[in-house]
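ok trying this again, last paste got cut off
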Amino acid sequence: MCNIGMLALRNTSKKRSEIEEIKQKHNVLEVTENLELLETLHAVVIVEEDIRDLSRICELISKIKNSSICYIWIMTDAEHSVGKLVYLQLGADEVFDLSREAKEVVFIMENSLLRVGQNGVEESITSENHAIELLKLIPTNASVIIEGTKEVVLTKLEYQMLELLLRYQGMAVSYEMIYQEMWKIDTGENKQYRIANVIYHLRRKIEKDIKKPTFIKTVRSKGYMLKM
């Protein structure tokens, strides 16, 4: 399963059938022009709803290209986007307009994302097995076995946090993504404080030295990363 960022520049974005189908197989996350979740994404879909969005989309393509190797797909509500050649020249991987069949769009996306899995399959398996050896979650006990010997019981939030970090181990998981995954609803509270509180208690249980954590690393101004 891959992470796909959906970036609509206007609030009038319509639901498109191809995106609804992609959602059944992959995580589709709403992102903003700040691209706060970029480090966790395998692809970004930018929705063009008005020709006036052209310059903003060009800036976004350049910004993404400078910070990530993820796929960049432009989805336009125009029959023939006047910016298509510009987007492709700047580095967009594909521009989908209304003349493309929804199934065709889905196949192109799926084939591209499949290569993401194939290219990293060996590394992913090795890394995942190593992670399991060091930290193995036991869902029935809501616990974790550390280095194959010590079993530690976790609270519900601690378990959810560790499961999330294990899922993206080796990648920086942003505060925003952690909050969306664990609490879903924005209550207006201090998100970083709430997340940091759970991390603190989790570290006390799984780290040998909480002041020099070996598993859960703080990624300054971004979030946290599980490092094995």
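PB: full thing came through this time. The chain has two domains: 3-119, 121-226.
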